[in-house]
Specification:
mainly alpha; 2 domains; two-stranded antiparallel sheet; globular
């Protein structure tokens, strides 16, 4: 019972520390909370069946985490073209950033599979059966062709076909698994067993809800800019976007079964391959190295396109009065985010006695602009140089007008129109403080 309660207790503690903006929980809340959630489901599973899934995987659990991160980096590669989401307030420093990202992406597979396994133990959809399907050789080829089309169309015309990405891998990989004799999606449908598919779809939806809710509260997080669906959101996700999580869960399942069949990942529960054809040790090692290089290379380009802001360092903020900057440095303030939370409140109370009212108001106005929706130092400096020096001024302009002002300045890169629309749309929610 103590282990069963440890996960929820850890999540609650992390949530409280995140709300108080205590580091590292404010920046890495998503990672702390998700691993607490995985541990919670693992203990629920242990309570019902005996051994937990982490124990069943043993040291191979690290391989499961590795392939989870690698699978999501594939979608990050595709997103370089789609530009459906971007990251804000990423931790400073490439190595720390890469490590934190790997840890976050590693939650994908266990998040889905542990929920799916628990639903199985609870008997969800266990008796659901339907008409058995038949898959001919031509039908399997057509499914794979459809998978290639579902990948090609979003890359060619991302504005209109981006949802098809979440079907591409399952349509391409499931027929390959079928030919290998893997007891996967198509084999189950061939027997008329629809329960495993329904459980996976539900597990994907549940995991998606957790992903988006935990992301919403984190300081380092992603924000969506999905065409046509960007207005009505739950957390940061457009409501229609939640429909992508169920097929994504199926994609993860078929990919993981292929990895298990080749001996690249640990087997557990429904993800077993007693008649698999494992690669030899040398080939497995080479694939792990190549995959790690792929992750690092994709992350390199993410940093240049998908990551739009780092945690804003004080010495990178152009919109600060030199005297105010010097005073903040004497208080050992390194980041603007140090002015947030309970520690920030204590500091701001001291600053009220050390700064003139006009200086204090300017500091508040500047910090709120740079922190608004993850604008950060690079884009905050552009706004400041363009004469947009408060959230209220930002909210009074159209996104097109803001982008026009920024384009007239020397710059390394510009935000996209969709990103500026997020800034402007949410700016009216801010109010000047007395």
């Amino acid at each position: 019972m103590i282990l069963l309660l440890a996960g929820p207790a850890a999540i609650a503690l992390c949530f409280s520390l995140m709300l108080a903006r205590v580091e590292p929980f404010a920046t890495f809340f998503y990672q702390f909370a998700w691993y607490g959630l995985i541990f919670t489901f693992d203990q629920l599973i242990r309570r019902r069946q005996g051994p937990s899934l982490i124990a069943a995987c043993g040291p191979g659990f690290l391989l499961l985490l590795f392939w989870s991160a690698a699978a999501w980096y594939f979608f990050e590669l595709v997103n370089l073209r789609l530009q459906n989401w971007y990251y804000i307030f990423v931790v400073d420093g490439w190595a720390a950033n890469f490590l934190a990202t790997l840890v976050a992406f590693a939650t994908v597979f266990p998040g889905i599979f542990w929920i799916d396994h628990y639903l199985t133990l609870r008997g969800v959809a266990a008796q659901v059966r339907g008409r058995p399907l038949r898959f001919s050789a031509a039908g399997l080829r057509n499914l794979q062709l459809a998978g290639l089309v579902c990948l090609a169309l979003p890359l060619l015309w991302p504005t209109y076909f981006f949802p098809l990405v979440w079907l591409a891998l399952v349509l391409f990989t499931a027929p390959a698994n079928y030919r290998r004799g893997i007891d996967d999606l198509l084999r189950q449908l061939e027997r008329g067993e629809y329960g495993p598919l329904l459980r996976l779809l539900l597990a994907g939806l549940i995991a998606g809800f957790f992903w988006e809710s935990l992301n919403f509260w984190a300081r380092t997080k992603w924000i969506y800019t999905v065409p046509f669906f960007d207005e009505l959101k739950l957390f940061e996700m457009p409501l229609a976007g939640f429909l992508g999580f169920p097929p994504f869960a199926v994609e993860c399942a078929v990919l993981y079964r292929a990895l298990v069949w080749r001996g690249l990942a640990p087997s557990f529960g429904a993800y077993t391959a007693p008649e698999g054809r494992p690669f030899g040790p040398a080939l497995r090692g080479a694939l792990l190295i190549l995959t790690a290089v792929f992750c690092a290379a994709t992350h390199y380009y993410m940093d240049r396109q998908t990551t739009t802001s780092l945690t804003p360092r004080l010495d990178a903020i152009a919109g600060l009065d030199p005297g105010v900057r010097a005073l903040l440095e004497t208080h050992q303030v390194q980041y603007l985010t140090d002015l947030e939370g309970w520690q920030g409140r204590d500091l701001c109370q001291r600053l009220e006695t050390e700064l003139a009212p006009a200086q204090l108001a300017e500091l508040r106005r500047t910090s709120r602009l740079y922190l608004h929706q993850g604008i950060g130092a690079e884009y905050g400096n552009l706004l400041w140089l363009a004469g947009i020096r408060s959230v209220e001024e930002l909210g009074r302009l159209s996104a097109e007008a803001v982008l026009h002002k920024l384009a007239a300045l020397p710059h390394r890169r510009l935000p996209t129109l969709a990103q500026v629309q997020v800034w402007v749309r949410r700016a009216p929610r801010e109010r000047e403080q007395p």
